[in-house]
Amino acid sequence: MEGEIYRGYMREYDDIAEWIAKNYKNSKIVEIGIGSFFYLYKKLKEYGLNVLAVDVNPKREFVIKDDVFNPKLEIYRGTDLIYLIRPPPEIVPSVLSIASEIGADVLIKPLYGDFFEGFKIVNYKKAVFYIKKKFK
After folding, report:
1. Coil, helix or strand for 23?
2. Checking CA distances to 46, which of 14, 25, 62, 71 falls within 20 to 30 Å?
3. C-alpha to C-alpha distance for 5 and 11, rounded to whole angstroms
4. What single-letter DSSP state applies at residue 133?
């Protein structure tokens, strides 16, 4: 039973990966705040996508160190999609500022119950997430 719950939980991230792959096939994509949850990042890599992982406290060598409250914009230039998985709401305004500066879309998979004003909710298969299109 426990394994079935885990597979069901991961299925949502599989669906998010599929949605991103369909909509951002030839794009630069950045995950902000990857922490130690690498599942979606790895799924996107399996699709052959150009994905970078960023965190204020990197836990793996492939993760780029950056602080969204004082970002190094050169990391993000050319990015078409920034995504966040279960982010603390207090970092979202800084991420939106980065996205505005570089003209990127923002996708947020929230904790259940979190709401982000100005975003469109997307229901794709088993996945539910928010998207805010380019600020350009």
Report:
1. helix
2. 71
3. 10
4. -
- Condensed to tens digits (0 to 9), the pLDDT of residues 70-80 reads 999 999 999 99
Tokens of 30: 């950045």
Residues β-bridged to residue 130 = 108, 121
Token pair, residue 95, equals: 């991420």
pTM score of the predicted model: 0.90
Nearest to 76 by CA among 94, 90, 59: 94
Residues 6 or more apart from 38 whose CB is under 8 A from it?
53, 60
Distances (CA, A) of 94 to 32, 54, 69, 73, 104: 11, 14, 6, 12, 13
One CATH from 3.30.420.40, 3.40.50.12780, 3.20.20.100, 3.40.50.150 for 2-132: 3.40.50.150
